[in-house]
Amino acid sequence: MSRIRVRKAAECDLPALLDIYNYVVRTSAATFDLEEQTLEQRRKWFAKFYDQYPLLVADEDGTVVGYACLSKFRDRPAYRQTAESSVYVHRDHQGKGIGKRLMTELIGLAQTLGYHTIVAGITSGNEASVNLHVQLGFQPIGVFREVGFKFGRYHDVTFYQLFLR
Fold it and tell me: Are 25 and 36 spatial neighbours (Cβ–Cβ below 8 Å)?
């Protein structure tokens, strides 16, 4: 784990981020995208991140092995002190504490940026993500039943929330 460095994402990281994300699109209901993203789509996605909405990568000896980000929770101004988090770890690097390291850094940044709370929507069956978020102090706050249809069935999404101090 000592070779892992968490840093701000750079545009040159996009091919690795695309690979990580597209694997999840193909194999998991952790995202409700149904088609793989293109590099151009990821460039547009990348442009949404800036100081108030950080995008972090876990870098192992120059190779991106995971990423986490804060994004806008809702568009209305009263939501500006709430952010939504996402975290993805490369399939060959899961179970090594990388997600926890990324999320810990992200939570620290959220506190520094003055956020009041972070929410995360986790698809049913994604126990690794549930366990990670609960370990970090997130609590379940509600379930949206059957809101996503992927792989021939409906999926629930449970929202988890962490209040920042």
Answer: yes
> What's 101's domain CATH number?
3.40.630.30
Distance in angstroms (rounded) separating the CA atoms of residues 27 and 161 = 26
- The whole-model pTM stands at 0.95
Distance CA 86, CA 67 (A): 8
Tally of domains in the chain: 1
Residue 122, CB-side half-sphere exposure with 13 Å CA sphere = 24
- Per-residue pLDDT averaged across 35-52, rounded? 95
Sheet of 55-60: strands edge to edge? 4-8, 55-60, 63-72, 82-89, 117-123, 153-163, 139-150
Tokens for 18, please give them. 């695309």
Parent domain of 13: 4-163
Backbone angles phi, psi at 61, to 5 degrees: 50, 45
Residue 76: pLDDT band (50, 70, 90) is very high
Are residues 39 and 109 in contact, defined by beta-carbon separation less than 8 angstroms? no
